[in-house]
Specification:
- By secondary structure, this protein is mainly alpha-helical.
- It is about 50% helix and about 10% strand.
- It holds the Pfam family p450.
- InterPro entries: Cyt_P450 (IPR001128), Cyt_P450_CS (IPR017972), Cyt_P450_E_grp-IV (IPR002403), Cyt_P450_sf (IPR036396).
- One of its GO terms (biological process) is sterol metabolic process.
Length: about 425
């Protein structure tokens, strides 16, 4: 844990990257109200809509990976990032952003990621990573403002939501229409009629993109690496997929089906525990906070806890450096279930990641779809297990892999036989 200063972190207009709005630092009632306005974006209905968008993107990227004629393994950290970027932009903004706009955001957003490395020249002088990131942020926000404005027009004309921004704006418009409903209490009415400007929506989507892009790209990279390095994990994932899907391997994936993927979800959960995408998050102490018997953090101090030790605590996770999905399937008396607060991958408290269910759904769906359509091998190098810290963490060698098509199983094969083939 780092304890950095006695003052509140600067939140001036010069804050260069993601935090150009104070909204990300909200606390108390304003923060609760803001979160209420976002809850509609991650309901089961919303997640089901996103899943339909995601699956088509997965399959297209998988096909490109399998079609690569080079017989040698290559680095897949950036292709994993590309899959996440396209998925995120289409889920968040639908078709309001053109293919050119999507490419511009993808190419330039990487400059924001690089500027979030732990060691950087901290001033926005021309040519520095921070300067380039500020320019990239401005361009990205303009695209998101455009998406918001276009969505407001389409939703006002009676269109049906088909992306996250649509769902958000539809909820605002519905709330506005119910403003005079006498059955709503004052608190409910105030929450429902909260309108967000194009700028506010753009800034919120930018923060969503950070979580879905940098953090999930890290999570996806390590997920593919972990199951390749431990074939038994992948065999069991495949067995579960063949059992749940029966002979309908090409049927669209659904949220109900993902709910049944207990083993696959727990592989994802363990992979995130072993290599948490974000290893530290800054907090501000709003009152004196006792760390232990010897030290109390003064009010106003920035505290940066590391999640790593909690996620590798042997009391909660015996053999903490091993991926053991079964530890989450052993009932309430298991150490993992007895220490639920140790699983801090998505944070805790009022500022926990609001997109947690979306992230877990996404990673589970990618692994599930990949397991039955592809085989892949990980080329282990001397730096495969060394960690590079950018905004999230990544294998230092970029995760060198080779993908190939997986033949369809025999119609008479049992799930066990199909998984072992």
């Amino acid at each position: 844990m780092l304890i950095l200063n006695r003052g509140r972190p600067s939140q001036s207009r010069s804050d260069p990257l993601l935090f150009s709005s104070r909204r990300v630092f909200l606390n108390g009632k304003p923060h609760v109200d803001f979160r209420k306005g976002l809850n509609t974006l991650f309901t089961r209905n919303a997640l089901s809509m996103y899943l339909g968008i995601q699956e088509n993107i997965y399959k297209r990227h998988f096909a490109a990976w399998m079609a690569d004629p080079d017989p040698q393994a290559k680095e897949y950290m950036m292709p994993f990032r590309d899959l996440n970027m396209e998925t995120s932009l289409r889920v968040f903004c639908g078709d309001y952003i053109s293919e050119k706009g999507q490419k511009d955001i993808s190419d330039h957003y990487w400059l924001i990621t690089l500027a979030l490395q732990l060691v950087n020249f901290p001033f926005a002088l021309p040519g520095t990573k921070v300067y380039n990131a500020i320019k990239a942020r401005k361009m990205t926000i303009k695209w998101f403002e455009h998406a918001s404005a276009e969505s407001k027009k389409r939703m006002a004309a009676g269109g049906e939501p088909n992306c996250l921004i649509d769902g958000w704006i539809k909820a605002m418009q519905d709330a506005r229409a119910e403003r005079e409903n006498p059955d709503l209490g004052s608190d409910a009415r105030r929450t429902l009629v909260r309108d967000f400007s194009d700028r506010e929506i753009a800034l919120a989507v930018l923060s969503f993109l950070f979580a879905s892009q940098d953090a999930m790209s890290s999570g996806l990279t390590y997920l593919f690496q972990h199951v390749a390095d431990q074939p038994e994990l992948l065999r069991k994932v495949r067995e579960e997929q063949y059992r749940l899907r029966g002979g309908q391997l090409d049927a669209p994936i659904t949220l109900d089906l993902i709910d049944q993927m207990e083993y696959t979800r727990n592989v994802v959960k363990e992979s995130l525990r072993i290599k948490p995408p974000v290893i530290m998050v800054p907090y501000t102490a709003h009152k004196a906070f006792k760390i232990d018997d010897n030290y109390t953090v003064p009010k106003g101090t920035m505290v940066i806890p590391s999640f790593w030790n909690s996620l590798h605590d042997p009391q909660a996770y015996p053999d903490p450096d091993k991926i053991i999905p079964e530890r989450w399937m052993q009932g309430p008396d298991s150490p993992a279930q007895q220490h639920p607060r140790n699983w801090l991958v998505f944070g805790s408290g009022p500022h926990y990641c609001i997109g947690q269910q979306y992230a877990l759904m996404h990673l589970t769906a990618v692994l599930a779809a990949a397991s039955i359509s592809m085989n892949w091998k990980h080329e282990i190098t001397p730096t495969s297990n060394k960690v590079r810290v950018i905004a999230g963490i990544f294998p230092e060698d970029g995760a060198r892999m080779k993908f190939s098509p997986r033949p369809a199983p025999s119609p008479t094969a049992t799930p066990e036989e199909a998984a072992a083939a």
